[in-house]
Amino acid sequence: MADTHHDTPRDEIHDLPAGLPRLLAVMTRLRDPETGCPWDIEQTFASVAPYTIEEAYEVDDAIQREAWDELEGELGDLLLQVVFHARMAEEEGLFDFARVAETVAQKMIARHPHIFGEESRDKSPAQQTLDWERIKAAERAAKSETRALDGVAMGLPALMRAVKLQKRAARVGFDWPEVDQVLDKIAEESTELVEARDTLGPAEMAEEYGDLLFVMVNLGRHLGIEPEQALRDANAKFTRRFNFIEDDLHLDGRRPEDSDLAEMDALWDKAKAAEKAG
User: Fold this and answer.
1) How many domains is the chain built from?
2) Domain NTP pyrophosphohydrolase MazG-like spans what residues (predicted)?
3) Dihedral over alpha carbons 99, 102, 103, 108 (to 10 degrees)
């Protein structure tokens, strides 16, 4: 595959058009075996992947906090990860950035026949979702992913992957029809976790704990609650209330370690009441 960004002299980087042309040239220079950055040169797909995940989370964090002044930079950091992977692929003769962009454009065209094709645009969001899943299923079949759970990425956050696995299984009828059945299963798994704690070893206890988490995800799905978001909200609430405890103790020149559980519980209740009141 032709290397389309190899010979951009150092002083011409600043003269390139703003946007992707300059960014692609910057990455090429960083990866140049002779004149590039030693750290960038030694990176691989595997070593860069954790940074890619981290940058995606930082984009999400800026959105969650509505930090719009930060979002531009975070999106740029995420785009850099795509450019980095594409550059390494180009060096190995696999594909380049243009192919990445064209592939996703073609995918979007294929998945939106009601926009780019002959199908009617007059569809409900629910019908569009069904059509989207049908098209994705055909794509998986074309890649010989014939099992119901094929293609659910291993690298997803565990809660998110659990939801996707359960939705796939539900499509073929493997699901509890009633919420009460899920609640009964939670009680069963809770009992088994206690039994494992009392009579078995750490490995069995961890397994039962995982089973309980998995069923809790299922309950969220049946109730129309996104488990990942619900846990984020719970984390944020915990942070707010614990910060309240610290702030209150700080008024007396103390820290949490200078207090005790009874006092901190009382302050927690005070924080909870304050949130409900206003």
Assistant:
1) 3
2) 43-116
3) 170
The secondary element (H helix, E strand) that includes residue 270 is helix 261-277
Whether 38 and 62 map to the same domain: the answer is yes
Whether the per-residue pLDDT at 5 is higher than 70: the answer is no
Answer whether 6's CB lies under 8 Å from 90's CB: no
Indicate whether 33 and 104 sit together in one domain.
yes
Give residue 145's pLDDT band: very low, low, confident or very high (50, 70, 90): low
In a domain, 196, yes or no: yes
Which of the residue ranges 2-6, 51-55, 268-272 would you say has the lowest mean pLDDT?
2-6
State the DSSP code for 16: S
On whether the CB atoms of residues 30 and 48 are closer than 8 A, the answer is no
* Nearby residues of 185 by Cβ (< 8 Å), 6 or more positions away: 176, 215, 218
Instruction: Quote the CA–CA distance of 159 and 154 in Å, as a whole number.
Output: 12
User: Hey, what are 274's tokens?
Assistant: 């304050």
**Least confident window among 3-7, 266-270, 274-278:** 3-7
Same-domain pairing of 33 and 60: yes
- Considering the domain boundaries, does residue 115 fall inside one? no
For the record, the structure tokens of 270 come out as 């005070």
Print the domain residue range for 242: 229-277
Does residue 256 form part of some domain?
A: yes
Q: pTM for this one?
A: 0.63
* Length of the chain counted residue by residue: 278
Question: What Rg, from alpha-carbon coordinates, does the chain have?
Answer: 25
User: What is the per-residue pLDDT for 7?
Assistant: 52
Distance (Å, rounded) from C-alpha 210 to C-alpha 161? 13
